[in-house]
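RECORD TYPE: protein structure
NAME: Lipoprotein
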Amino acid sequence: MPWKLASFGTLLAALALAGCSTPGASVPAKDAVVTEAGSGRCESKAAEFAVGQTASPQLLEQARTRSGAQNARILKPNDMVTLEYRSDRLNLNTDDKLVITRVNCG
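PREDICTED:
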């Protein structure tokens, strides 16, 4: 009788744990290629057209769109910035007169 209870308990535990797993977790999604293509990874070369132009919200959005970045920001010479690297963010660095001097991702 104790062996039957132990076997039954093991079976119940296995069923309970099986209910916690997600089906198809090891199989890649069908839309994986679409996700990679629209990953939001920044390509700064595509936004280099902005160098020499005066920074504006419209130019920022145009540069963000062309670079494929998810986020973008204008950085003035004395702005405080965070130091974490984000591959989905475009930075437009300006001089004191808001003329863009450098374009980079991060």
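COMMENT: The chain has three helices and three strands.
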